[in-house]
């Protein structure tokens, strides 16, 4: 049973986007094979091989990113069940543009410095939040972390608790 509720929208959108890219890559590869088997022109073959390579590369990179997102969502699901919630941490924000001329997107990345129980300072960064705006209301951010494996964490604004569950620690002291 989940103890905490998080907003997975940005990651779910990325997952769908990469799935569509994989599908288009496979579709274009199959289409180019059919097209270039039909027309036997040498220049067309050269262009076809370049196109085939491009489509394959897009499909492979998309598949790798898709798998990474699936594993990331699994980690977040595990954190929602077994993680420790730290509320109201101060944060820094970086707003960046993807730099792509055609599909330019602005995203926000949140940075948090968290001190563990043994005094070690962790410098953590959030997943990308697309849209370029910060959904902050109180100047603080929440951290969901696996204290046994601090590489597993999730940073977001207003991580909710299930009924009857309270946060493990409130850094703001409220």
Please tell me about this protein's structure.
The chain is of the alpha+beta class and 174 residues long. The protein has 2 domains: 9-77; 83-170, no CATH class. The chain is built from 2 helices and 10 strands. The chain has helices at 9-38, 42-82; strands at 4-5, 84-89, 92-97, 106-115, 121-125, 129-130, 141-145, 153-156, 160-161, 169-170. The strands form 3 sheets. A 4-stranded mixed sheet has the order 8-7-2-10. Strands 3, 4, 5 and 6 form a 4-stranded antiparallel sheet that branches. Helix 1 (9-38) runs antiparallel to helix 2 (42-82). The protein is elongated and about 70 Å long.
Question: What is the compact description of this entry?
Answer:
Helix content is about 40%, strand content about 25%.
Please supply descriptive tags for the structure shown above.
174 residues, alpha+beta, 2 domains, four-stranded mixed sheet, four-stranded antiparallel sheet, 2 helices, 25% strand
What structural class do helix, strand and pairing data support? alpha+beta
Number of helices: 2
Strand order of the largest sheet: 8-7-2-10
Helix content: 40-55%
Radius of gyration, CA atoms, in whole angstroms? 21 Å
How many domains? The number is: 2
Instruction: Compute the average pLDDT.
Output: 77
- Uncertain segments are none
DSSP E strands, number: 10
Largest sheet: number of strands, sense, barrel closure: 4 strands, mixed
The amount of beta strand, in percent, is: 25-35%
Name the helix and strand elements from N-terminus to C-terminus, one letter apiece: EHHEEEEEEEEE
Q: Termini distance?
A: 27 Å
- What is the 3D shape? elongated
